[in-house]
Amino acid sequence: SSQLSSLPLQILFYVNGIYYVFYFLATLAMIVYKSQVFSYPDDFLAPDLAVLFLMAILEVPRLYLGCKGNLMEEEAPLGLSLGVTVGSVVLCVYLLTWQTYVLWADVILNAVLLCAYGLESGLKVMAIAVFVS
Amino acid sequence: PADTRGAARERASSAPAPVTDVARLCVCDLLVAQCDANCCCDPDCSPEEFSLFTTCSIPVVVGDSRLCRQKAAVYSLDVEANPPERIFQLIDQVNPSIFCIHATNYKQALYLKSPEMPTPENFDRLLNEFGSAAFSAEPEGWDVDPEAPNPPDANETHSYEYGAPVQTEDAFLRLPSPVVSSWCSDANPAAFLVNQATKCIRSVSVDKCESIQGLSMLFYINSSILAVPKSSQMVNVTVQSIVVQSLDGRRTLLEGGDVLRLPLALDELCLNIVLGVSYHITYTDTGAITEAAAAFVLGAITKEALSVQQSFQITFTQVNTKPVPLSGNPGYVVGLPVRAGFRPQGYPFLVEFLTNRHSQLTIMQSTGSQDCLAAQGARAPVLFGYNMISGCKLRITAGMKCQPLAQTLLDVLKGQRFPEYVASFGNSQAQDVLDWVPITHLHISEQKIANTLQSSCQIPVSLGIEVKWTKYGSLVNPQARIVNVTATLSTTTLQQLPSGRERIIPVTSSVVFTDISSPAEPGYKAWPTINIKLPFDFFYPFV
């Protein structure tokens, strides 16, 4: 077929968007829970919250550029989205390993998100290869 | 030396490392090098001692139970085996909750923080952060350094407050008092409005008596007192009177007693040394000192004297008032003297009572000699709430005349001027005649029935004063009020003795305070009533 856009990638973007909303609310709620139950001084709480919000801010252009690139079959936005994904991956790894308190639920959420990012990145690379050629 | 100091500082600045290995932690191991009973984790116990345990007081030693996976030391006793033995297992404990802590990057999250060890460098910072106002290096307000710049709060109080040290031009008014030991310390300041009396011992020697500062009058009056703190208005300390005490203790008031008399070493004596100072400070109601006077007791010491006891006193009086010591305000305070007085003779109606500063109800004071006839009239004031009993022994010999003996005993028991009225409140004023309670006198005579027809002479042998008081006023702050005072005099017949014989009879006087308060009844406010009345002209056109 003449359609070059990747359907699995589009489905993944859609699912990622919904999952990310759930992920953001859950992580924020858990940080609030941790600050009440454990000893969470302010200078440890601030970086964790900053990372979470930064990740949320990055997610929106990432998904938008990815969708746009995929649907318009252009590789530039898709490549840009891939770059932003790298940043998101770094932040996700921070929340997985370098957070002040890493609960088991944190591990599960971040691992799922990392898998999603990894799968997305793979599909994006394949899509770029298809668009370029 | 520099290395050892540095090493010592290193050692001192870190506390011992906390033990976090569960296999080595044992909370029940309290006795060092001894086996604790039923403590299965105690390393000092041998297997024989384990076989004597009945149960393990601590079955599990774990760290924070919120961790997802952690090591736990489990101790148990196998009672089936013969002999019973202790089982120690190191297992992995898993927390199934989804919110268990998988990892932390914050070291103090799971352990108590080791406190910072104080060193000479960080001591001041730690004291500011954690210290409370217990001791400060210098007391505030004692800045006697004239070069210090004017403090910014120059508009502060220009008056003395209660308890503030009375300042003089060089430091403060000294009231030497014993600190820690009985030796006089000259660094005790007199506090404003705090009436104090202190006694302390000062070491003396006849050779140096002229140079010891604390023995000379000049030391106590040379610096003038500041009228208000930090002002330039001075009040000179005047010499009110000088009493000279001789070596045998007799005191005489010196005429023209406002001349300064400095210590004088003469032969083997040193004269004019200060044995007592009594300051009288007059102040205004705004907290400024207007007058200061000092009354001295000077004495002499011999060559053998190594120390002398000095007594110091300070009293504060407000200007234009004549202070009368109150025994309570308004109710009597336990321990303060019961105030008493007389009604002036010749007045048919109740007028003011005659009381002076020291009009008190007094009771005979027991002396060492215990002889009633040799008693010199020493009397002790009756203190409210304190039951007292005192007595003496009367030696009756043959041929003693009854009537003079009775009069003497009456004087001994009642004193020279036994009061007629007692103040019912601690602050009763002399002009409020209704506030004073008359003393009721009862007379009990022990007459033998056989001698009822003969009117024989009776001698008083006991005086019992019963003071009935009640709680007066509010339930939460009851005030003591004297309601009734009864003085019961018991007399007995003086039996004439054959010559050569003598008898000893005891003579006692006592004071008893009885609480006759009726139980308190709570009073309740009346229920509010609804007071509805129609206006006068409500039915105007018709009525």
UniProtKB/TrEMBL annotation, chain A:
Gene transcribed to yield this protein: Tmem80
Membrane-traversing stretches: 12-33, 45-65, 77-96
One GO process term, biological-process aspect: non-motile cilium assembly
Compartments reported by the entry: Cell projection, Cilium; Membrane
Topology within the bilayer: Multi-pass membrane protein
A cellular component term, taken from the record's GO annotations: membrane
Name of the protein this chain belongs to: TMM80 protein
Alphabetical keyword list: Cell projection, Membrane, Transmembrane, Transmembrane helix
Primary location recorded for the protein, binned into one broad class: other
InterPro entries according to UniProt: Uncharacterised_TM-17 (IPR019184)
Transmembrane helix as UniProt keyword: yes
Signal peptide: none
Organism from which the protein derives: Grallaria varia (variegated antpitta)
Automatic annotation (TrEMBL), chain B:
InterPro entries in alphabetical order: TCTN1-3, TCTN1-3_dom, TCTN1-3_N
Record's keyword terms, sorted: Cilium biogenesis/degradation, Glycoprotein, Signal
UniProt keyword Heme, yes or no: no
Pfam families: DUF1619_N (PF25752), TCTN_DUF1619 (PF07773)
Single GO cellular component term: MKS complex
Boundaries of every Tectonic-1-3 domain copy: 159-319, 328-515
Chain intervals for the UniProt region annotation (Disordered): 140-159
Any GO BP: protein localization to ciliary transition zone
Residue stretches making up the Tectonic-1-3 N-terminal domain: 11-122
Domain of life assignment: Eukaryota
Glycoprotein listed as a keyword: yes
Quaternary structure and interacting proteins, as annotated: Part of the tectonic-like complex (also named B9 complex).
Family: Belongs to the tectonic family.
Protein name as annotated: TECT1 protein
Source organism: Grallaria varia (variegated antpitta)
